[in-house]
Amino acid sequence: MSMELDSVQDSQDLSELHKLEFAHSILGKRSALKEQELLPHLKELHQKLKELEQGAVDLESLSTVANDLTSTQILKNSSKMVTAVAACCLADILRLYAPEAPYSNLQLKKIFNFFVSNLSQFGKEDEDLFQYHFYLLESLATVKSFIIISDLDNADEITLPVFDEFFKAGSNPSLPKNVQVCMTDIMTQIIDEVGTSAQEIIEIILDQFVKHEKTPTVPSYLMAAEVCSICAPILQRRVCQYFSDILLSVSNAEGTEELEELRKAHDLIIKVNAVVPDLLLNVLPLVQEEMKLDQANVRQIATETMGKLFMHPESNISEKYPTIWKTWFGRKDDKLVHLRVRWLEMCVDIYKNHAESIPEITECIKLKLSDPDEKVRAIACKIIGEIMAGCDLKHIDKSLLELVDGRTKDKKNSVRVQAMKTMGSIYNEYYASIQENEKMAVQKLGWIPNSLFSRVYTGDASVLMTLQDTLLAYIFPYDEDDQQRTERLVTVVESLEEKQKLAFTAIIRKQQRFNDDLQKYVRMCEDEVSGMTTDHEETSNDEFMKYLAAHFADRPRTFNALRAFLIRKNSRDIKLLKNSIRTDHDYKQLYKSKDKLIANLNEDQAGTVEIFQAIINRACPLIVNKACITHLLKMAKEPKGRRQTALSQKALTAQSILKEISITYPVMYEGCLTEITKGIMNDKDNIAAEEELELLAELSKSNPGHRKYDGNLIKRLRSYVVDGKVSQANLASVILGNMKNADRSMADLVESLSDGLSLKTRNLLSTLTSLSQFALYTPQLLTPYIDLIVKFVEEDLLKTPTKSYTESNPEWVAYDKLPELSKQKITGVRLLVNYLTACRNEMEPEEHIITKTFSILWDLLERTCDGALTDNTNSAETSHLRLGASQAIVKLTHYEKYLNELTVPKFERLSYTLQDTCFYVRLEFAEFLMKGLQTEQIHPRYYSLLFICAHEPEESLLKQIRSFMQKRLSSLEIKQAESTVLDSSLVRLIHLLAHHPDFTITTEDLMVFAQYIRFFLSCVATAENVSFLYHIVQKIKLSKDMVSAELSDNSYVLSDMTSLLIKYKCKESSWPLNAYAGHVTLQSKLYKSLPPGAVQNETMEKSYLPQAFIEKLEEEERRKLGDKRARTSVVGANKRTKV
């Protein structure tokens, strides 16, 4: 009974199923039907099948068409429309039969290949075909028909073309969105359900990221990204295998092709990470291992890859893979320099994009600033500038910048250049905040110009050239607005400390001196064009160009550039060069000429452009120039209250700049004199306008005897002389003494000042100050009264004791704190010195005036602090007088007229000033000598005096002198004719020491005197000049003392001592001591050659050094050598090894 019931039930179910009602045959009996006949039947069949629902159809009714559709007549039909409709019908059959298919595996393979063939037409078909192709695609995606092929053998033969064709179709940017969705679904189904193992599919997918990297909106790129995202868990292992195969196959190779393949693989990793980072779960550990390999190229590629992954803004790899981050971070100490460099470069974007990494990267960069390789140090400086560019002020690390500042003193030029560039660029970027006086900006960055100007004191040509470039590019960059540029100048100078302000002044003055030299070069070029140059002048020109080139680090290249420009004879460019450095041109004119010249050189002399840029920058007045004068004058007049506000400080700074310009570039003031004199005339109570007076005084000195002033101004100036303060009287006298016809118009004023001079004269200090200036600029006015003035100074002023009213009675106080009488004495002496200075050329002072003045000066050297303390007179006054007298003697005896006043014994007496009991006397006199020697305003004989400071107790002064000597030695090499000036000062030093009152031949005293020679050698001796030094020392033993023959043995003792110390120096420094081939003649006023023969042989063969001294010296040298070796061992043991 139950069986019957089941049968009835089945019958009822079958009766409810829909049957396909299709009466046509789609196959021909002998050959395929014509398209006109077949296509309507297929379309009808497609429509009927489409209407049937899965699970509600009688499958038996489908069997015939299902079988016919697999016929070769259908599958191989030449009509695209026929095959498209047939494919839709087959898709419906599979839908209706799902989950089983009414086909054999062989038939299924043919069917799916048929599907793929049709689907490959996307983008190529017309609109009629598209509807069928899309129906097919949508059906396959919806029904998941491709799952069927999972049981087929070699299913990859079907799936591979699917991916290939889909991505080809996706290359068309206009591929409809719904098509993309269906294709993506099918590909994810194949990966998820079919489980294809073909690595080619992985290649095809990943290849989309390479092909369409620059067009990530192309459908292929989007489909690949979507497939990878959906199937990431499945694809991870296959992607890992894919990369593993590539990396292993090429990572051990060093060939160009293999490395290129490796780079491509790593580029692909970067591209995949940007889209589907999860896909690389198992790949990144492979890259981590590559970073540890010995092969340098592989290690670098892997390190760069991970760096790019870490720097991506949305990357969290460092958090997900902390061990990989640690491995990558360890590459900062890689033994490859270029890898450490590249590693640092990648830190920039990591720093900017990942705030959590900032502390770690910052500490690392700090370490890399001390890397042993200059390239790494330079790039560390560079990236600090990059990471701080655009950074919020509160995130700027001042300590990091301070370390960069340290690199501006690096031994290597490339590091110094980058460090200064970084410092300058950061200052320039945040300048607006600094100018607005924002507290954080000033605190973190306002110090940068001060630091940069400190580099002036290195004296190194390459450092100064880099500093010049940095200043013009970043601290004082191009700005056509004169007012803004002037305000920036004041802001920068205001931020400088005193020492750095002096450095700023030094740069301006060096620029002015080089400007003069370059103008001479321009005239040389003009003469060359005119053909007026003689053979002698050509030789002289070469020497001058060598002198110019010596101001730059690359001397040969600079000389060649100067010479090439000279022989080029281009009148147009010579005129441009001339206009580029004119001090009477404004800012825009200078830049216009400069830029045009550089452009011209770029066209036909490109190799000289960089050099000429540096040459012009060195000479061109771009920092201070004519255009800023007016604005500085306005700023200088801002009100200055008792409280020094920021505004008043800027006014003071503007005044100091104006004063410097008036000294260095007075021609820039032409056109501004009216404004300056107006300020003097507006001074109603005779107590203001000192700034204008100071400017006008400097301008008067620049053009003496030519300026004319109106009567009212002269009257005002005369009132300053008679009734003004000392400073006003001083400045007014300078102006009046330099005006046109001053020798006539000021005669009455000088007479009234000179007449009846006494200690009771009203405003005596102002009177003496004014007379000292008239003495300097119009000495003929004082000639009728000079005898009376000398008598007053000698007998009244200097003989009047200045009582000390303090118990301490210090050896030194500042000039302003001296008693009035002390100031009067100092000024009175200066008056006499100024008179002789002014008479050095044209006028012939009375002989007794010269004798009397020098007698006063030498007598002042004997006024000691000890004597003042005994007499209870002002001790500080004697120090000022000794210092002033020493300086005056040096200055006056530089002139030919007074040279005889400096005999050898007196020169030796002058040296004692450098061993004065008062430190400030020693300091001021030493600095006076150094400045005079540097500017060549005093005779080179004074180099020897500075070595008398060998026992100077103040280390800072000793260090200053040593540094000066070493820099001068380098500087004097520029002028070959003077290259032995410092070397030869050894002879004069030995003569000085031989006549020193403390000299004896006891061992203790000789050890003291050995220090003088050691100090000289530490400053002057080099591998190049040591043979010359040894030779001239030996020459002393062949001579006798011309001043005191009985002291010749002292010189011989010092000669033997110096020879021994030179040998020790050579041994210590590993220098060869060769015979000197040149001929040398000693200074005739010091030494005269002994008669050749027995006398010379006797002195040469005899050792004048006591044996006890030699033994002590040898013991000391052995101890020094042992200490040096011990230090070397310790340094070697503690030296950190770099990975």
TrEMBL record:
UniProt xrefs under SUPFAM superfamilies: ARM repeat
Compositionally biased tracts (Basic and acidic residues): 1117-1126
Keywords assigned by UniProt, alphabetized: Cell cycle, Cell division, Mitosis, Nucleus
Record CDD domains: PDS5
Keyword Nucleus: yes
Entry keyword annotation includes Cell cycle: yes
Subcellular location: Nucleus
Gene Ontology cellular-component terms listed: chromatin; nucleus
Stretch list, region Disordered: 1117-1139
Matches recorded under InterPro entries: ARM-like, ARM-type_fold, Pds5
GO BP annotations, alphabetical order: cell division; DNA repair; mitotic sister chromatid cohesion
Protein name, per record: ARM repeat-containing protein
UniProt organism field: Rhizopus microsporus
